[in-house]
Amino acid sequence: MSYKVASLFSGAGGLDLGFQESGFDIIYANEKDKNIWETYELNHPDTYLDRRSITDVQSADIPTVDGIIGGPPCQSWSAGGSKRGIEDPRGQLFFDFIRILEEKQPKFFLAENVSGMLAKRHEESLENIMELLGAAGYDIFFSTLNAADYGVAQDRKRVIFIGFRKDLKIDYSFPPPIEKKKYLKDIILDLSDSALPALNKSKPNIELATPNHEYMTGGFSPMYMSRNRVRSWDEPSFTIQASGRQSPIHPSAPKMIKIEQDIHEFVSGHEYRRMSVRESARIQGFPDNFIFKYKDLNDGYKMIGNAVNVQFARILADSIKDAINKSYG
């Protein structure tokens, strides 16, 4: 049985792709960032993309679906963002997710956000969100999961909210961790020697043999140099950030040397380059035939860093599908 899904705050569609791989049908997506539209529509040709702000979308504009998925903007909850949580207009977009959920009443929903929203300063806001999700008619299941525990070559902790409509009486359990780990050598080793630098620090390089296999150049900030940014081939990647300047360093370089607290240096005589857009995409689970369109590499890194890892999304989607199918017996 195929379940229809609406995707909100879709970005480039990593979460959508994972659900598609699990057999769900993504029939509607919403994304207001014009720098993402071309990428989404190129890679999701069968999904209708609504380009308006979610605040302008009425529930009647969205077709009848079995599920709603999405990652409301996380910058305001992030340790690297404003930390203002629900006080930030971006943080308040979670309420639009709940508004549409309450009015559409699909069988299930999944919402993903950064682990920073669990910080003590956001405790009251989180309780408010949980109460509203429950009041919308859903049994809520909530956990912090690390994608590295699910066969992903990246440490990426995220808060996952999954809900099922109360009348379905579904008892859900999050999928158990996978024993077999994956590391950088398993994901990007074959790309090591073919990456090219961006033109003029962040402009696309048209001479690429592998699409999007270019990396941002330019200096590194004191904040970046405050700690080691290199993981070895036999480790999972650091979290892929939504910023080219904050991209992890390629594992071909030795780990940075700690000089003193909050000060690290590169080992002299070695090349330290950022991960390419394609390497970042691989680490986030996007296949090589998923093409990112941009005029500035910053937009490529941003789309990838803001996405949900595709393999991780598929595992969650499988667990939701199994729970629903079991309830229908």
From TrEMBL:
The keyword Zinc does not apply. Keywords: Methyltransferase, Plasmid, Restriction system, S-adenosyl-L-methionine, Transferase. InterPro entries: C5-Methyltransferase (IPR050390), C5_DNA_meth_AS (IPR018117), C5_MeTfrase (IPR001525), SAM-dependent_MTases_sf (IPR029063). Its EC number is 2.1.1.37. Gene3D superfamilies: DNA Methylase, subunit A, domain 2 (3.90.120.10), Vaccinia Virus protein VP39 (3.40.50.150). PROSITE patterns: C5_MTASE_1, SAM_MT_C5. The active site is at C74. It is an enzyme of class 2 (transferase). Pfam families: DNA_methylase. One of its GO terms (molecular function) is DNA (cytosine-5-)-methyltransferase activity. It catalyses: a 2'-deoxycytidine in DNA + S-adenosyl-L-methionine = a 5-methyl-2'-deoxycytidine in DNA + S-adenosyl-L-homocysteine + H(+). The keyword S-adenosyl-L-methionine applies. GO terms for biological process: DNA restriction-modification system; methylation; negative regulation of gene expression via chromosomal CpG island methylation. Belongs to the class I-like SAM-binding methyltransferase superfamily. C5-methyltransferase family. This is Cytosine-specific methyltransferase. The lineage of its organism: Bacteria, Pseudomonadati, Pseudomonadota, Gammaproteobacteria, Moraxellales.
